[in-house]
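Q: Convert this sequence to structure tokens.
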Amino acid sequence: MTQTGQAAVERVFREEYGRLIASLVRRFGDIDIAEEAASEALVTALEKWPESGVPPNPGGWLTTTAGNRAIDRLRREKLRDKKHQAAFMDHDDTPHTPTGPVEDDRLRLLFTCCHPALASEARVALTLRLLGGLTVPEIAQAFLVPETTMGQRITRAKKKIAAAKVPYRVPEAADLPERLGGVLTVLFLVFNEGYLASGDGDPVRAELTGEAIRLARILHQLLPDEPEVTGLLAMLVLTEARREARVRNGQLVPLGEQDRAGWDHALIAEGHDLVRECLAINRPGRYQMLAAINAVHTDAPSAADTDWSQVVALYDQLTRLDASPIVALNRAVAVAELDGPSVGLALVDRLPLEGYHAWHATRADLLRRLGRTVEAKEAYDAAMAATQNSAEIAYLGRKRGELV
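A:
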């Protein structure tokens, strides 16, 4: 098989992974069986599709093939208890028993992985693996921890789900609010991985951003009076509105250089309406603040018209809700636009983010603006070394090359 053919199959597999795993977990009630069957289906696709071509419904093909592989495994292991009886049916058109207030396999998987029995970081990591199809190295990079540490967290989380007999369902409406924190965090991180992929494949993964938005819309329908749900959805659609303008000729295009005519103005209008919903409820939260910041950016007709004083004020409010170094880094970028690069650099240099590519990229830009060329080149080199995203590397390399 050519590398191009293998990449095409793997791309389809990643696009379908969350739907495939969720369907298999519902059917067989076991995460390990689902993952193993999905992997075997991928191997079969890599063998057959280059000759026969990608089927018209690749997701359905993968689901059927993975289901057959799971049945074969269960037969070999003679697991014939009631839990797995349905697995031995070659075909079953009977609708499954309702398992919560909505009928969506992926949303059920999301709430299963975000069960309170699991530690917070384990919930997020497991869901990114199962729902988003992210690799362990990609998840480790998102959390800024070693790959082995992340692998252990995911393994422990799966064992905990099995041992605690965590139900595969969306909680009843009364129980939803207490489970929301982990769910919203997961959707935020899944979207971020799609918007700027950490691996060395496609620089932008629209299937992940689309899936995060789809699930956020369902949550908003379920919980229309939860302002953080509304805020998350607003932030996602406002950010998604800029996606098509974010990569050009294989290079990342920063916000200030984007062609705003290429933004999706229908999504921007939707996002602004959602922000106004949050303001009417008047219970500020992290995602609402992020949405408001995005609203300011998307309201400006040009980069020069951005109201940076308002952006900084919103980051000040966000810092009181979330004092993380990532928030502080983004605030420093806004401060640099308002008060100058030297003030921004002083804030950036205090942050413990030496392993984060965006920290190095921000320093590189500020040092460039200050005329500190040698230091800027070093910072660009460090930023390129800390990311695998091809579009980002191309952009950083171009900016470094412009230095004399």
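The longest strand covers residues 247-248.
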